Amino acid sequence: MMEPEDAAARRAVKPVICYPVDTLPVPDMAALTRARATLTKVDEVLVPARDARCFSVPAGHFFRIRSVEGPQVGDLNLWAENDLTERFYSGKTRALHGTHITTGQRMWSSFPHLRPMATITHDTLEWYGKDAFGGSVHDVIGTRCDPYTHNLLAGGQYHQCCHSNLVRALAAHLDVPPLQAEPHVHDVLNVFMCTGFTQDTGQYFMKASPVRPGDYLEFFAEIDLLGALSACPGGDCSSEHSSDAAACHPLLVEIFAADPAVLEGINLAPRNHYDRSHGT
To answer: Which DSSP symbol is given to 135?
Structure first.
């Protein structure tokens, strides 16, 4: 197809940021840093390789996802502890913060709530930045490896993918059948995963994660949270996911309480103030 005469001019139009964040409520990182200095571990959950586990984090607590044995990525779902209809909204988080998130940025919840669920307070991989391929760590691009896409592209019935792992974990936590739990499983934060888009075709790519044992991503719970974390069957995602070929390792979720006196100046997230009249 021939290009129009003004094709170059159309391409040269400068982009406009869709959601300027100058007025976006920001976390009090100084107060959170003071609170971090008082942390006491109160619980932990080990997530086995190629499987998932649920965990709860009270509002005002911190939690860490830690690499413990070898390079491993994880797929994270978050819900409001007492209302599973309020869940992590990866698309809006991406629109506000970009394709990858790190210290000082937040995981936002779904409509009609649209409020911070968790704030990232420390990221040992923040040094990675963006590499020459356009790759970065902790993405809100990918949806999670799942048995439906696997079946579509390769056939067969593979059950250890992150979607199925999360379904099983949530079903066990709620004590309901998997088919009842599955609608609550949603797009994830890909913890430790190194991803981007190719320059030529714009395709989503992954590459070996830079995570090593001892690295962790730490969050402050803005509301009472129920989380589910899958230790992806892709391991460090250096070759493929949704297979039994990759070397995989467990991940550790650690939950911490801070000194309540230090938390007094930290305001937890209110629900969104839109009146929901929708012009009617």
So the answer is: -
Task: Tell me the pTM.
Answer: 0.96
Q: How far is the C-alpha of 220 from the C-alpha of 43, rounded, in Å?
A: 15
Torsion angle, CA of 41/184/84/61, rounded to 10 degrees? 20
Identify the pLDDT of residue 198.
Answer: 95
CB 189 within 8 A of CB 178: no
Supply angle C-alpha 66, 72, 78, rounded to 5.
Answer: 60
157 pLDDT above the threshold of 80: yes
Beta-ladder partners of 220: 62, 119
Compute φ and ψ for 57, nearest 5 degrees.
-135, 115
The Cα 203–Cα 185 span in angstroms is 24
Q: Rounded CA gap, 37 and 93, in Å?
A: 28
Residue carrying structure tokens 């991989």: 125
pLDDT at 86 over 80: yes
Cα(135)–Cα(1) distance, rounded to whole angstroms?
32
Q: Which alpha helices (H) appear in the chain, and where do they start and end?
A: 7-11, 29-36, 90-97, 147-154, 162-174, 178-181, 260-263
pLDDT digits (tens, 9 = 90+) for 233-270: 999 999 877 778 899 999 999 999 999 999 887 888 88
Residue 239 in contact with residue 257, Cβ under 8 Å? no
Give the span between the Cα atoms of 110 and 127, in whole angstroms: 30
User: In which residue are the tokens 């400068």 written?
Assistant: 14
How confident is the model over 210-235, as pLDDT tens digits?
Answer: 999 999 999 999 999 999 999 999 99
Residue 60 tokens, joined: 């005002």
> Which residue matches tokens 């649209």?
114
